[in-house]
Each structure stands twice: as C-alpha cells, then as structure tokens.
Amino acid sequence: MQVNKILSKLKSMGSQRNREGMARFGINVKNAYGTSVVNIRKLKKSIKRNHELADKLWKTGNHEARMLAAFIDEPDKVTEKQMDSWVKDFDSWDICDQCCSNLFDKTPFAYKKAVEWTGKKEEFVRRAGFTMMAVLAVHDKEAKDSDFYKFFPLIKKYSTDERNFVRKAINWALRQIGKRNKALNRKAIKLAKEIQKIDSKSARWIANDAIRELESDAVKKKMITPIKLCLNICFGYSIW
After folding, report:
1. How far apart are CA 141 and CA 30, in angstroms?
2. What pLDDT digit, counting tens, does each position of 64-108 carry?
C-alpha cells in the first residue's frame, strides 16, 4: 500500500470530535487526523511488516502515520540510530508509549536505551527511557531481577522531575518492576520509601502512588504461585 493511500485511509477514519477528545487527554493533535488507535490497529492488519514503509510513514510527520509505523516496523531491522532519531521526534505521550511498547522494547538495544534516554533533558525522550523500563518489566519474561536493579538509581535520581509526563512514566516504571515478583516487589517498595523522603512534590507523589499499589492485596495475590496459594488456603501458612 502506497504512503499516500495510507494517509488518505487514516484521514477518512478520523474526525474532529476524536481530535478534541485526544486533546483532552493531553495528546498533541497538531498533525493528527483524529483516528482512534483501534482503527489504526485494524489498518495494520491489512499491511505486512515493512521496515522501509515504516520509515516513510514516520517521515510524513503525521501523528497516526507514526503510530502505524511503530506497529508495522520490523524490530530486527531497527538500528540504534533509528531509535535515537525517532525518539527526538516524540511530541506526544501516546506516540512515545506506543513506539516503546510495540517496537523499541523488542530490539537488542532496549535496556541500553532505557538507561541512556533517562539522562536526556527533553521531556519525551526522558519519558521514553522510563517507559522502556515499564514495558520491559511487563514484556521481557526471560529477564533477570538484576536487569532491573540497575534502573533503581535512575528512578530515584529523576524522581524530582516535576514534568507531568516524566513523573508519570517514572511511577509507571517503579510499579511495573515491583509487580514482576516477590523479590522485586520488596526492593521496589524499599526504593519508594527512600524516594518518599525526598523534599520534592513529584518524588512524594511517585512514591506514595507506587507504595499504595505495590503493598495492595491485589498485587500480592498475583505474585503467589499456585502451590503457595494452595498451602495458604488449605493450611493457613503465611507465605508473604
């Protein structure tokens, strides 16, 4: 499918009402058609993964075309140079999150970029770094606990960043890492309590929100293995 035809299709599925709705959720609609993510995903099904097409769609600068690019690109063909180039173009939290969770986290450079990008000053580049931490915690089932420990100093260091889209990503990373397993849960709660003591409104919000979820019964139950759950129910053993 030609780029122009894709753009026409995306535009036909959009609406001013959707653009207004997107704007209310803090999405940059300057170059957007107002096409829902659901419809973009439907269009994706009719397009095979294509690295070259993804690059062309990204270069249009259109909001929906860039999201589609993240959906159809081929992770094994994505380079560090491309990742650094695209991340500098991020101008909205949804593009940032979709790229990180559908493409960038599947590349061999994911952990490296998570660390690098948090050190950048640009709002959405730094958000991308912490978003990478969050989605890796969810998607990378083979990762070791030690892979996430190296993120802890960065979470603490930048917890004082008052920018809304950054602090929310930091909080997201802390919560997702803390929900992987029991050991990381304890480490994440300990880190959150350290952050809680920092004289910063942002840091306190990040910590309080994370602690509330990570110490909840719902999270604890999800991390109980079936055999432990049986012991707990049948014999009343304390397993937490």
Report:
1. 37
2. 999 999 999 999 999 999 999 999 999 999 999 999 999 999 999
